[in-house]
Amino acid sequence: MIYTEKKIEKILRQRGCKITPQRRAILSAIIHSREHLAPAAIHKKVCQEHPGVGLVTVYRTLEILSELGLICEMHAGGNCRSYMMRRPSGHHHHLICSDCGTVIDFTDCDLGELERRLSKETSFKINGHLLEFLGQCRNCCKETVIR
Amino acid sequence: MIYTEKKIEKILRQRGCKITPQRRAILSAIIHSREHLAPAAIHKKVCQEHPGVGLVTVYRTLEILSELGLICEMHAGGNCRSYMMRRPSGHHHHLICSDCGTVIDFTDCDLGELERRLSKETSFKINGHLLEFLGQCRNCCKETVIR
DNA sequence: CTGACTGCAAATAGTTTGCATGACG
DNA sequence: CGTCATGCAAACTATTTGCAGTCAG
């Protein structure tokens, strides 16, 4: 865990944001989860400790955190997006089970070379990348065989 | 262009699907576009030639084509998903401008090694991957400087 | 104090479903 | 002809917005 609550609160203050109990709760929920959470899931988690926090507030907080690059957003298919703390390396990647939705994270990949080449060929200023592998996890493989 | 209309129609028939004018129109719209299209955009395009085709039909057709692996789905952020013909290599990747939304495709990447390693470490059966680089295209870079 | 934040309700946008009709094979 | 496909309307889900009251700094 790299960003502590305090660090993030400091960043928020510097940006002119106020630290409210709701934001603390939302932050805490995201920081203490290793998984990707959909807004609704974050809301549920937050409500367990702080009932009454609105889903709208969750959305608004996520937007701010995302803008500041503190959390990252992912789209795993379907209509859902989900969020988790951003790793210090500036990127992380996913291995997603298309059957049960399990997400495994990994960070080590070597795309620097490719990024440089693409950047040169296309004149894009590349800020980041998203790499997702799709497949079936061990359990879902088994189930498929049994069928 | 690798999959021709005829080829795809054959695949659909084999699968027990009927070839209707609507499906033809939808297929044609996707095949003749090099860009990613959102369902609504496909619908609009189809309606120019064949007014009266329902958006619902577009969704249903996309679902089938996607299931058969003939088109691929991508999520570029926001609430939109979009589709385009799948390349024969079984995967393709994107370079997306986060300002104007331009998408450039590329296919050559070397992820085989990484895929094998991940597969071994996690016992996942990996079916495919999605690689997206995010950044700013040449035009949007300029604009940023001018601001 | 004051501007930023919150929660509610309502509005949107995108997508899915139920059902009667229509058409491919 | 039977089965699958279509289009409409309605249902749903996720997300955003307007607004009046509240609170952090």
Q: Any chance you could write out the topology, listing elements then pairs?
A:
The structure is a homodimer of 147-residue chains.
Chain A lengths: L4 H10 L6 H11 L7 H11 L5 H13 L3 E5 L5 E5 L7 E5 L5 E4 L5 H11 L2 E12 L1 H9 L1
Parallel strand pairs in A: 3-5
Antiparallel strand pairs in A: 1-2, 3-4
Helix pairs in contact in A: 2-3, 3-4
Chain B binds a DNA duplex (25 and 25 nucleotides) through α4.
Question: What does the model show?
Answer:
- Two copies of one chain form a homodimer.
- The first copy, chain A, is an alpha+beta fold and 147 residues long.
- The first copy, chain A, folds into two domains: 1-86, Arc Repressor Mutant, subunit A (Orthogonal Bundle), CATH 1.10.10; 91-147, 2-Layer Sandwich (Dna Ligase, domain 1), CATH 3.30.1490.190.
- In chain A, 44% of the residues lie in helices and 21% in strands.
- The first copy, chain A, is built from six helices and five strands, in the order H-H-H-H-E-E-E-E-H-E-H.
- The first copy, chain A, has helices at residues 5-14, 21-31, 39-49, 55-67, 112-122, 138-146, and strands at residues 71-75, 81-85, 93-97, 103-106, 125-136.
- In chain A, strands 4-3-5 form a three-stranded mixed beta sheet. The first copy, chain A, has a two-stranded antiparallel ribbon with strand order 1-2.
- In chain A, strand 3 and strand 4 form a beta hairpin.
- In chain A, helix 2 (21-31) packs across helix 3 and helix 3 packs across helix 4 (55-67).
- The longest helix of chain A is centred in the middle third of the chain and has 13 residues, at 55-67.
- Chain A is globular, with a radius of gyration of 18 Å.
- The first copy, chain A, starts with a helix and ends with a helix.
- The model of chain A has no long low-confidence stretch (mean pLDDT 81).
- The interface between A and B is medium-sized, with 35 and 35 residues.
- Chain B binds a DNA duplex (25 and 25 nucleotides) through residues 13, 16-20, 22-23, 38-40, 52-57, 59-61, 79-81.
